[in-house]
Amino acid sequence: MTSVTLVMSKDPVAERGGDVELSRLLITLAxxxxxxxxxxxxxxxxxxxxxxxxxxLELTRVRKPAVAPHRLAVQVLRSRRSLVHARFDTPDxxxxxxxxxxxxxxxxxxxMAESFLNSARRGSARLVVNTHVSESLVWRATRGIxxxxxxxxxxxDELRVAxxxxxxxxxxxxxxxxxxxxxxxGARWLDLTLPPAEQVAVADTPPRLVFMGTRDWPPNQxxxxxxxxxxxxxxxxxxxxxxxxxxxxKTGVRDPVYPAGVRDLGFVDDLHGFLGTCRAMVAPIxxxxxxxxxxxxxxxxxxxxxxTSAAVGSLGETFGLSTHDSDEAFVAACRGFLTDASxxxxxxxxLYEINRDRWVRRAPHAAVAALLDGTQAPTR
Length: 380
Hints:
By secondary structure, the protein is of the alpha/beta class. The protein has 16 helices and 13 strands. It has two domains: 3-190, 3-Layer(aba) Sandwich (Rossmann fold); 202-358, Glycogen Phosphorylase B (Rossmann fold). It has helices spanning 18-30, 69-79, 83-87, 91-98, 114-117, 135-142, 144-164, 173-181, 218-235, 271-275, 293-301, 309-312, 315-319, 327-339, 341-360, 363-373, and strands at 3-8, 35-42, 46-52, 55-63, 104-108, 126-130, 167-170, 187-189, 208-212, 242-246, 262-266, 280-283, 305-307. Helix 6 (135-142) runs antiparallel to helix 7 (144-164), helix 11 packs across helix 15 and helix 14 packs across helix 15.
């Protein structure tokens, strides 16, 4: 059996987040056809057993070094790499990769390939890069002057890594096409969806919308602020209308003035139970790309979505979702669901059935297998 090792920037046992959830899904799906293990950066070090895919998988934790600005600056100057790509190339991570004998090494995020490219395994193992999201896009949109300086360097590094890889998977069809147009012929859209869960009874919900997202991730904070700005127009004249916000607040940011009807709940103990009380999910993302876990979470339980093009991305085609990019269109779509529970219920049922059918047909499983074994030509 072909052996596969994933190299991850976060600990899939101890940490949560959209990229971690998708990496865990990829591991679970890959374990159907491959002998899977993982290496991750973590606050701890050592080898543990990861309880995924109905069996125990080996996880090697490599202690994540603290940011040392002077040392990082030297690395950037010597290597001529961007801050992010220099930051994640570490001797300990290289040593962990060197110790593997896997046939395939999967870098989860482009920058996690740097240690592989500087390891002894380069040339003897097949390198697959799963980009998740373009850091150049995020830095340009959210890091001010530094982001504008780093963007071209990040893009150059992302293209260099992609060209060095044997295959590249993206979570956005347009991103895959971007790479193919620049000579990365092995780039493909990795259209993963989540296994179906208990379907929510949308028809029985109160006029409540939900916004989900950890706001330390800059695009989520940006979307949160946009949702608050639109809420007065969304809720105008609708009795008992609510917008509930779920997810950790951005560190160090003072609470805004919340409009009437908005509740910031942070983490909730029973997420599925709470989502079962919501009419629809809102995703007014401005800076998009990569992982759309919020959309996938909504689809798996049949919760309708009002999203922008940046929020929905290529999943619009997968799930037949409309997008709403102007303030007027977004407000109108939200109000439509708040005032018509039956319409929301139909939209949720359609979403649930599409997701369920994909899982029954094992479409996500086939997408992962095709990426890892390289036997099928790249698709969107």
